[in-house]
Write a structure and sequence with these properties.
It is built from six helices and twelve strands. By secondary structure, it is of the alpha+beta class. The chain folds into three domains: 64 residues; 118 residues, no CATH class; 100 residues, no CATH class. It has a four-stranded antiparallel beta sheet. A four-stranded antiparallel beta sheet has the order 5-6-7-8. A hairpin with a 2-residue loop joins strand 3 and strand 4. It starts with a helix and ends in a 16-residue tail after the last strand. 22% of the residues are buried.
């Protein structure tokens, strides 16, 4: 037996951690067969283990996604309900509900408190230049390009708002209904102007329990997503809003401005400094004119 073949055999045994030593084959052809047989067996075992791990990962990701999508359109005991959408804190607007799960943007069409249609798109975030191309498109079509809206616009008109990192709120002015809502125009508002955040005629007022969840450190976008827009700007030199509550009380929230770095650029954000229920009514000092800070 050649020295190189014997060396190979012993090294191969060691690599396998074999407890039993193999007798050296007498012919070179047997060594070759031995090498191939064991190397192929080792490769097969490795490939099998890799395949099992890959399938496990795919199942962990794909199965929940498939279940979520199958539940979203109804039709069974596991069907996603409108109550589920409320627990998921979806944004409700007309007959639509919007939801961002971190990977997909979802739109649910609701009729008679039942989900009748579901649209799912790869997750995208709003970019300023994309708003030039969405006029005359439906909201359902636009979500594929600019993502889901941040919150409802104004109560006295059909509108949806996108709060942008460039310091502006872009408002979609709409017509139509349901999944046929069409974008007629796009308006732009300065986030630093308190008037841009107001909805003086809001009819869907938050419950007291919802207002109790507003705490220091929340961004203004999160506050508006949770309880809607404020009705009055009462600040002087600072952003201070009043929110009407469903039980007739008033929530007062003061915000502090802070410059933060996001995606390589400095952005001015507003965070809750103080939130207090049962405050006294104060007239809106900005009604009829803007008050940029």
């Amino acid at each position: 037996m050649k020295r190189s073949e014997e060396t190979f055999l012993r090294e191969f045994e060691a690599s396998l951690g074999a407890e039993t030593k193999f007798d050296a084959p007498r012919e070179e052809g047997e060594v070759i067969k031995f090498k191939k047989r064991n190397i192929y067996a080792k490769k097969a075992a490795f490939c099998t283990l890799a395949a099992v791990l890959v399938l496990a990962v795919i199942s962990a990701v794909a199965v929940p996604t498939a279940l979520a999508l199958s539940r979203s359109v109804g039709g069974g005991g596991d069907a996603l309900t409108v109550g589920d959408l409320r627990e998921m804190r979806c944004l409700f607007f007309e007959d639509l509900a919007f939801y961002d799960d971190g990977q997909k943007n979802h739109i649910y069409v609701i009729k008679n408190e039942e989900i009748v249609t579901h649209y799912g798109y790869d997750r995208v975030t709003a970019e300023a230049e994309n708003f030039d191309d969405i006029r005359d498109k439906t909201v359902v079509e636009a979500v594929a390009v600019i993502g889901i809206p941040s919150f409802v616009g104004l109560s006295d008109e059909l509108s949806l708002d996108y709060s942008m990192d460039d310091g502006y709120i872009r408002r979609l002015k709409l017509s139509g209904e349901g999944e046929d809502l069409v974008i007629d125009d796009v308006e732009q508002f300065d986030k630093n102007d308190p008037v841009s955040w107001l909805d003086r005629d809001k009819k869907n007022l938050p419950a007291r329990e919802e207002c109790e969840q507003i705490v220091s450190g929340m961004k203004i976008e999160e506050v508006v997503q949770r309880i809607g827009k404020p009705q009055r700007d009462i600040g002087s030199g600072a952003i201070s809003f009043q929110f009407d509550v469903a039980d007739g009380s008033i929530l007062g929230v003061m915000f502090a401005a802070e410059m933060t770095e996001e995606n390589g650029a400095y952005v001015r954000n507003f965070y809750v400094w103080k939130a207090e229920l049962d405050v006294d009514f104060v007239p809106d000092i900005s009604e009829g004119f803007g008050r940029a800070l």
